[in-house]
DNA sequence: CCACGGCCTGATTC
DNA sequence: AGAATCAGGCCGT
């Protein structure tokens, strides 16, 4: 068995690993004995926050490559202090920022992110994670670290080859058709997710919404959590409640009207504002 | 354009 | 206990 390599990586405060990994944006992190374990870019990683940043255990010996990968994944280029200044428009947001200070938006792999949010329709975090794990276990490549094994998330080509029926058997329900279709579009070369990264928010979103089973909410999630569109403002039931109760006094606005409001009110970093509203409202419950 | 039922399925609620 | 209800939506009518 391969030996685990260790790395201590400095991350300037504020940084909150737990809030970042458990705020519903990524779906394959598991907590056990003080460590978060997950698979990023085909590598099995274990992470633990310490005073200086994070401790990392992995099979990667090239510390420079690992540091670059994590810096990209955690979007360390985003200056949280500056972002807070821009979105802290009121005491409510101030409270959320204080409570979850250091929660970052991740830069996930687009295909995996798209898959997760296709699975998210009328589902819940536990089941989304279960679906993602089933897909990985069925088609991914098995990798081991510290005696534990996980699987990489399979390529769109592999998922396309597996087919809708197989995905249904994995428990995706009506979402199986949508995931199979998206996988097929990518495998055939009709859709290149990395191209969306270079497009404007509007154009990239229009391209995603074009796919069956992908509406504005799922598109916005993929755009903000994997394609660098920090102005995307996904509105699920929690964000809808938060905005309705805290800002719009129950006004019955439609999805894109709320998005427009969010852009005017929070500005470019509306996506970050959304993450704090979502996390806060969801943990408060009901 | 708007409203509403239906969709898979597993956990939770009644 | 067994049946409704509800989950980080979207589609078709």
What does this structure look like?
The protein is α+β, with helices and mostly antiparallel strands and 286 residues long. The protein has 14 helices and seven strands. A five-stranded antiparallel β-sheet has the order 1-5-4-3-2. It has a two-stranded antiparallel ribbon with strand order 6-7. A hairpin with a 3-residue loop joins β4 (43-49) and β5. α5 runs antiparallel to α11 (216-226) and α12 (237-246) packs across α14. The chain is globular and about 55 Å long. It starts with a strand and ends with a helix. The mean pLDDT is 97. The structure holds a DNA duplex (14 and 13 nucleotides).
Using only CA atoms, what is the Rg?
A: 19 Å
* Tally of helical segments: 14
Distance between the termini: 47 Å
What share of residues are in beta strands? Answer: 5-15%
Find the structural class using helix and strand composition: alpha+beta
* Fraction in helix: 40-55%
Q: What's the short story on this structure?
A:
The chain is α+β, with helices and mostly antiparallel strands. It has helices at residues 17-21, 63-73, 80-87, 91-99, 110-118, 125-139, 156-169, 175-187, 193-198, 201-209, 216-226, 237-246, 255-266, 270-284, and strands at 5-10, 30-32, 35-40, 43-49, 53-58, 142-145, 148-151.
């Amino acid at each position: 068995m391969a030996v685990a390599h260790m790395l201590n990586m400095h991350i300037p405060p504020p940084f909150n690993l737990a809030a970042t990994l458990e705020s519903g944006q990524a779906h394959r992190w598991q907590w056990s004995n003080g460590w978060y374990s997950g698979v990023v870019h085909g590598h099995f990683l274990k992470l633990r926050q310490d005073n200086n940043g994070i401790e990392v255990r992995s099979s990667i010996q090239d510390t420079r490559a690992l540091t670059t990968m994590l810096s990209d994944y955690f979007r360390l280029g985003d200056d949280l202090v500056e972002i807070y200044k821009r979105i802290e428009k009121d005491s409510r947001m101030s409270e959320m920022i204080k409570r979850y200070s250091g929660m970052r938006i991740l830069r996930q792999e687009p295909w995996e992110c798209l898959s997760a949010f296709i699975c998210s329709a009328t589902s819940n975090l536990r089941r989304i994670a279960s679906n993602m794990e089933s897909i990985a276990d069925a088609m991914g490549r098995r990798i081991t670290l510290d005696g534990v094994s996980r699987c990489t998330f399979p390529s769109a080509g592999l998922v396309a080859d597996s087919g809708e029926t197989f995905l249904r058997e994995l428990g995706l329900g009506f979402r199986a058709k949508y995931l199979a279709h998206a996988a097929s579009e990518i495998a055939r070369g009709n859709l290149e997710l990395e191209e969306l990264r270079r497009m404007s928010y509007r154009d990239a979103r229009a391209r995603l919404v074009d796919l069956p089973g992908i509406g504005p909410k799922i598109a916005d999630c993929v755009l903000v959590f994997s394609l660098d569109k920090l102005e995307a403002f996904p509105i699920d039931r929690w964000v809808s409640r938060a905005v309705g109760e805290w800002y719009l006094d129950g006004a019955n606005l439609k999805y894109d009207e709320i998005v427009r409001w969010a852009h005017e009110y929070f500005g470019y970093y509306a996506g970050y504002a959304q993450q704090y509203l979502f996390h806060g409202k969801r943990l408060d419950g009901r």
